[in-house]
Amino acid sequence: MIFSLLKCTSPDKEVVLEYSELMNEDDPTIDIKSFHKEMTQRLIHKVNTYNKVFKVLLEKDSWLQQQYNRQKLHNLWQELTIESDKKQKGLQLETFMQILLDMLEGIEVVDRRLNNGDEEIDIIASNHRASPLI
Fold this sequence. Notes:
By secondary structure, this protein is of the alpha+beta class. Helices cover about 60% and strands about 15% of the residues. α3 crosses α4. The longest helix has 29 residues. The termini are far apart.
């Protein structure tokens, strides 16, 4: 029921759910805390299930994986444009570059933030392409 409601509602509209409408008023043993805990556990279970299914789909479907990675890059870029903390921005850029490199066939990111005592290497990638040039 809630899924159908959310699916039919415009993304820019606010949806307010009243717990009282979902609870059985005839059962006085149900209080709002236990109801909230049960709903939270159900939601966590559903999210975990969706994540498992989505992970399998991503591994099996290269087109879907490309679309997912493009969306992640887009979202990261949006975050980068508003990030003011230099350290956080650097970490986001590293993640951005890792996703971008992972999208290239034959390129594998093998390590990140490797500290050799003198310096830190942000990304170490291995090139398995026939041509040494990307």
